[in-house]
Sequence to fold (1359 residues):
Amino acid sequence: MDQEFKLTSVEQMEADQERLHQTAQQVGVDTWQDRVKNQMPHCGFGEKGICCRICAMGPCRITPKAPKGICGATADAIAGRNYLRMAAGGAATHSDHGRECAWKLHDASEDGYYHVTDSTKLLKLAKEWGVETKGRDIYDIAHDVANISINEYGKPTGYQRWVDRATKERQEVWAREEILPRAVDREVVTAMHMTHMGNTADPEALVRQSLRCGMADGWGGSMTGTEMSDIMYGTPMPHDTEGNLGVMELDQVNIVCHGHDPAVSEMIIRYAEDPEMIKRARSVGAKGINVVGLCCTGNEMMMRHKIKMAGNFLQQEAVILTGVCDAIVVDVQCIFPNIGPVSECFHTKFYTTSPIARIPLSEYLPITSENAGQVAEKIVKEAIDNFPNRDPGKIFIPEHKHIASVGYSCEGIKSRLDSVTNSHLDVVDTYKPLIECIKSGVIRGAVAMVGCNNPKVRPDYSHIEIMKKLLENDIVIVATGCAAQAASKAGLLDKRAKVYCGEGLRRVCTLADIPPVLHMGSCVDISRMMLLVTGIAKDWGVDTTQIPVVGCAPEWMSEKAVSIANYVVATGIDTYLGIDPLVGGSPAMMELITKGTKKMVGAGYVINTDPEALVQSIIDGIEEKRKALGI
Amino acid sequence: MKRLFDCVFNGSDQMYAKAAADLDAAIAKYGPEHSVMLPDTAFNCAIILEYCNIQVKTLADLKAAMDGTIKEWMTKKERTEDIFKSGLATAMAAQVIEAVKYVEDTQPYKGEYHGHMTDAEVRELGLPLVTKDIPGFVVLIGPAPSAEEARDIIKGYQARGIFVFLIGGIIEQAKRMGISMGFKVRIVEVGPDIWSVSHVVDLVMRAAMIFGNIQPGDYWGMNTYTLERIMAFVNAYTPVDDLTVACGAGAIALGFPVITNEDEPLWKVPKSLIIQPNTQDWIETSLEARDIKLKVTAMDIPIAFNTAFEGEIIRRGDMQFEAYGSRTDCFELVVSKDPREIEDHKITVIGPDFDHLYDVLTELGSEPIYEPGASIQLAYIAEVGGKNMQSDFESVFERKFHSWLNCLEGVMHTGQRDQIRIRVSKSAFEQGFRARHIGEVLYAKLKSEYDTVVDKVQITVITDPTECTKLRNELAIPIYNKRDDRLSKLTDESVDEFYTCTLCQSFSPSHVCIVTPERLGLCGAVSWLDAKATNQLNPNGPCQIVSKEGCVDETIGVWPDVDRAVNEYSHGALEKVSLYSLFQDPMTSCGCFECICGMEPATMGVVIVNREYAGSTPLGMSFAELASMTGGGQQTPGFMGHGKHFIASKKFMRAEGGIARIVWMPSKLKEEVRTRLDKSAFELYGIENFTDMICDETIAPTADELEAMIEYLTEKGHPVFGLEPFDI
Fold:
């Protein structure tokens, strides 16, 4: 029976990691576990956000004896500027990824390497943007849509066109608070300008620009990345795959794709399925080719294909330490430079493919719209030829893996919700069934679990413990990024994991045939979550800030997460953080990001580094929103 | 707008208060140790048994349930678990109210309402549920907006095979509209008040315990079983008060959606609590909500076809005509034929059609022998062809004619071969039912149910008396004789393989029948030939081949492949089964067996009871109580469920001495098996009229007459006394 289904515990995952760490020690290479120890204790000024190294008069550090920097900048100004710069870094990163996707669509052609796969989504977007579609070639339409989205990055006037999708109330709030995002590039440049020596020292202005910069990401660059990828590679729909290190195969050629932009991995998948390549793999003694994903490239792959997910952020060294990684191919973001040294200790081939992420000890094969297929073919061939070079003495593959039901894009979620409607009464293609569950109290609310892994806390522990507690309380979870992968590794994306839910959510999972944690994609796909909450709010007839839905990033670490947190809050969604946002040295900043933004946009951060306390505050927050709605 | 959770909690409180008051009054009157016993069940107060794990015997036990789990589950926390538990506790409180009624009076409803349902009734549901002949259950809580609408919805569900339970005012409406009700016709007038719904929940609990081997106290086992396997739902007419909402929460906890037209604001929950203002559309809305897909076979006939009409009786006064094989030459026959000689779907009628029986006979100048209600001659022959068709399947198909023709509204069929008796009602005739429609039904069912074997079918219906007589004598009787010859030679030794039957696993997940020529499925519905045909029809289906290679013990009936098969198909629940023993690894039961036999220690014999027999036995237990000893795929040495046909087999508990062990059977069952049983006894022991040596309820109706039974057996010289005591 279902009751027999067991999650993989954090302890079991840690034991696997530790076993692989021993391999690292044997081969004489360091991993993040060693480096965390070496870095302790972290710089206290940096942690509190009160070290300023923006100009060369410093670095200046704020202490009780030295409450101002040389220019006179207070803790508030320094922490605020640092915070905005993080947001800008994150917004730039997501958005540039999105821009690359738009360029791929711009270059797409019938006989090229990149195609239009989801023409329905393309036509819908074309219609939304007023692009003529009647009687036109689908690629002509695609190129027009791509051009428009590329221009969003640098358009001299006006605001991001994506914001038109938000609720009317949200758009009014953004206009009132002057945080409607202009051109994506402009908001990042403005942020850099404002934080230059001798500019903004008012923390509120810095926070406001952080929100705006985040908006340019979530309602700009990230949304571009998601939409363009869906058009080219297909909109994810529910299907089953597997996750965790146990997906590495002893008797197959393992190619690991890592990073964020699916442009490279999509090509690898295509060539790994080529019968010629499979024949080649057999000829070297392998049973087949096993392409697996890591990090958000892994998410992009598993969402659209049956590709398995090997691990999240902190397992990128571990996959190589299994001794069976024949090639690791990276695109952009979250890639440890240490992959080079670790690969060197094994037969593993390490390829970098983007001018954005150039890393020593890798083979650099820059991928473009023109050469993508050739590069992918070369990588797959070399990985196959590398299969016989494994050192059997270094091989250890942890056994843990779980079935993962993934592919819950907004369209995927709606398809499952449609399945519980009654054709004699209900309309389809809405979030109404979910709203009915929430209104009646069967489900209490929803939490968007997002973000990274961070060794400052016990990795994955916060994600999994918070999720379990929420599920017990009939709170459904949507997840992206490394949070979704933590769920996958634990088994929470397996539909049988419904036994860990309260009875309401458990029943909903049964009837809608869904797992209790819905994987929505990579970190740029948090834009999907913005559309999800917007869709729910619209179908409900209220604003996003009223519905019992909140965000949670218990283990965030990257600048992208700061950008995300800003646009989630701007969208009216309270965001619960398990890691301090590096502004603790400025009480004014702490006040602004927790309570100040509430006054501006109706939402703010709740920060607590204790996961038990954090999850309780989430539950309380959701119940408060329910009470306000009278449900 | 009142929150859903508050409605449930409020309703639960009301039910609890009523139950507490009724129970306290009963205790005051009779004392706490007074016995509480719902009739003819081995699972007394099954809801309380399941969720409180209390075997209710006295009023004090009910009190313990009320003060314990029932109260504890009526929490008021804001989680779905709390409304579910509160709803189930409401059902338990309702059970307390109803059980107390049965303390006051063993027949509290005086035949006006059905009230409690017996274990035998629950067991009757087993097979039709498995075959999906009953695709689901509806609990209608009413009154409906009008009596006409009540009739329409009840008939609408009945026509779709849905089992109907009525609660409240809708029962009066149904009576007014002349709807015949009762368990047999699958429309049960449960009770007048909302608390009588506990009888339906109680039936659900017992079905899960009997067929699914769900144990008392297994909360998740029960709620998962009901959600996944019992396709019930509720239709509640407005006004829906909090009491009904609380009961509805219990229904939803079990997985049964509630559909209502309540116009007061009420929270909707997808697939669970559905507001459908258009009551005319309730049937379709409900079936979709519970994911019930009906087996539909399209056939061109003017009257309804549904399993719900299988139990329909057509009285002499209502009939247009009758064909009765005992009086005139009538018959039904399936013959296999080269497909090239068959024109598919050709239906030929030889003789006058039903509306011309009188005219034609008059024209011929003879006396008008036909008048409404009179007896006619009738025969029908199905010629069947297909690449995989085997002549062994002819009788398998032919036996199905009985249930197929009975599914016609206004047509009654009994008997088989040339002993058939068919009645067609005036109403069916008036709606246009004619001779060729018999052909349409047989054609459609043969083609849909046996599609992998049957490629082509043509039907001939004969009403011409001369032709009927001629074909009976020249065609049918020689074929019947040939088949009998073949069947008598069909023994466990004469075949190379047995079959599994796991048809019941949708309800009884760990039960496996091993079907042999002499030991048909314990439900009585699957013979060895049926199993063989099923295997041919669907090679990956419920009937898998079991090889007879390497017999370990022929007397006890042990084969390695039988053990492998039960192990595999019971998913490891069973290790081995011996086919001819009651004590050594006896075959398990799903719960829907025709008969159960149990060891009788005083005589070292066995008592056999059939499901239809309601009384007690010399073992001191009724069928229901004996049946509860086994079932759910459990191996219980000394008790075994089996089909009636097996009783006369020479393999029947051969390991323990065979049929000579049978010391008691209900008299009706004795008559049913007499001919074959006497024959076997003669061949085995040289004893004549063995059936007469077996005791029955006329001599020993209960355990109190054990002495009388022994005396009877001794007097008759029953062979059991010559056997060794059981080796246990």
The interface with chain B takes residues 1-3, 417, 420-425, 433, 436-437, 439-442, 444, 473-474, 502-505, 507, 510-511, 623, 630-631 of chain A (CB under 8 Å). The CA atoms of residues 546 and 629 of chain A lie 7 Å apart. The mean pLDDT of chain A is 97. The radius of gyration of chain A is 24 Å.
